[in-house]
Fold this protein.
Amino acid sequence: MGFGVRVLGGIALVALLFCLAHGLRHHAICWLGLSVGVAAAILALWFSRWYRPPDNHVAVVYLLGRFGRLVGPDQLAWLWPLFERVRAEISLALRRQEVTLEQLPTQDTFPIDLHVAVRYQRDLRVAPAGFVVQALSLSEEAWDLLVHDAVQEAAREQLAGRSGWSLLDANEQAAFRARLSEAVEARLRLVGVSLDPKAGLTILDLRPSHTVWEALIDRVAAGPLGEAAHRRVEALLAEAERRNEEAARATVLLAGAAASVKGGTEAQLVVAPAIPVIGPSRPLPLRPNPPDRDADAGSSQPSGRAKLGGGAP
């Protein structure tokens, strides 16, 4: 269209020059050239006011200095000369933003950490007319905050009626994602943002909060460790009890032998098995007494047995 406007403008210029050059001698030719030039200028002006935004862009048109209308990429609009002008052209390119939310409360006070990705377009055609003027002055950081706040409000609203434990199930997560996507889109439309219809909102990670997650891991790990420790303690107690019984037995036998020696008797203590002493020292066995010499000489006293309390006959 721009090429056609330039051609018509050139024709009008040539016709006017021709009229000025031959107008004094040929009045008919002058009028013809002037008519062609005026017609070409009018056509050039008319075609120049037709406007179509660039591909994948939405144009904001102002009328007499105020917001007038929006023109989409598939529309052809005619702008009134001197009254209408294009204020801005906003790209409809697909954008992606990740939002991380922590310690979100649930119905059973089970806090959740949520990490989602939002794919959206800045399409002012879905926004109320009163917000279009404000959207033109928003910075990139302000747009990111609008998306973040919309996701946070929608997530808190959806989690308020759900159990945190139930969201650990895959089917419950799918249902939660669908509800969350609808709630986020309803909020973002109020600020001129539309979600991608195929993958508008994707849950990248959904798990209990970091504090609860660490407590669950410790609790799961403490079960086997507690059972193993319990079995080890029982084995140690059994070993200690066995050692105490052996030590008590050795103490009784040694006390009896000491009492016999103190009474002046020739006590003979025979203990067959070795009794270990508690502690890191070596076992201290009590061996049988050597055989009686009198028995070897033919005495009537029996040998090979130990007896406590009583002298030789």
User: Anything to note?
Assistant: Helices lie at 2-22, 27-48, 129-135, 140-159, 170-188, 210-262, 293-296.
